[in-house]
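Training component of the fellowship. As part of building independent skills, the fellow (R.M.) carried out the full modelling exercise for a liganded target. The chosen ligand was flavin-adenine dinucleotide. The inputs are recorded below so that the supervisory panel can assess the work.
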Amino acid sequence: MPTHFDSIIIGAGQAGPSLAGRLTQSGRSVAFIERKLFGGTCVNTGCTPTKAMVASAYVAQKARTAAVYGVTVPGAVSVDMKAIKARKDRIVLDSRNGLETWLRGMKNCTVFTGHATFESRAPESFETWLQSHVAELCLVAGDGGTALGWAALGPVSSRCVYAGVGEVSVYVDPSHQRRGIGRALLAALIGRSEQRGYWTLQAGIFPENAGSVALHQALGFHLLGLRRGLGRMSFGPLAGRWRDVLYLERRSQRVGVD
Ligand SMILES: Cc1cc2nc3c(=O)[nH]c(=O)nc-3n(C[C@H](O)[C@H](O)[C@H](O)COP(=O)(O)OP(=O)(O)OC[C@H]3O[C@@H](n4cnc5c(N)ncnc54)[C@H](O)[C@@H]3O)c2cc1C
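Fellow's submitted model of the complex:
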């Protein structure tokens, strides 16, 4: 991942994304920082959701007054608020995800969200890092000599009763996200951990990291709960803020079932 950029854009609201497009098209590299939701107010809580709901109200009103236009609507027109909200949520999500996908796929644009880890700096050495991980369960996805992502497992306890319980970590270089690399890494890690006798895998993920939560759920993890204010962020767009962490767990159906 690059560490030097020609420009930094803070906020994926109205102007940030198109500015990133213009800057990268003119050959400049961009670091893009969003601390919360891609699309900002307009997409997530402002224009888009209100207009989506107003559109439903408009249709209901037109249907109710259809006779004025010479149109017959058989029966009473009713409103299903659940369906209206679901439609609104879909539109918001598509818009937010579309924007994030566009930015993450943009050449010369690196997206930072501060939703990946509490760690503020890399470990002193690989050997130091390895002390808290299982060497055989540290996987790297590469392309030629370039590391695109990694997945690793660390034991949660030294007590033998928990010998088959591990905590997983998955990381994909932001410029290579949304290519299935995280899924391939996590799936491989699950398979190999089962071969080595692990029966329960757990993961702690920032709730804002919806992509990672969805990835884990797709591979059999289920939600245990939300740990509120678990740690204070020491870097990035959320520095100084106490962060909630979602806990997920995957229980093997093959290991430790006797
Ligand atoms: C209910 C409602 C309806 C609206 N309807 C309309 C409408 O129909 N038409 C219209 O023109 N306007 C409408 N607006 C107003 C419109 O939504 C806002 O004017 C517009 O979204 C502002 O855009 P912005 O990019 O300036 O800020 P925002 O949309 O707030 O975007 C700022 C982004 O920057 C991020 N950010 C901020 N600080 C940091 C930081 N330090 N580090 C990292 N990221 C950061 C935020 O997380 C956010 O994503 C509406 C607003 C509301 C609340």
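The panel noted the following from the submitted structure. Strands lie at 7-10, 30-33, 109-112, 138-143, 146-155, 165-172, 200-205, 222-232, 242-251. The domain at 126-251 is CATH 3.40.630.30 (Aminopeptidase).
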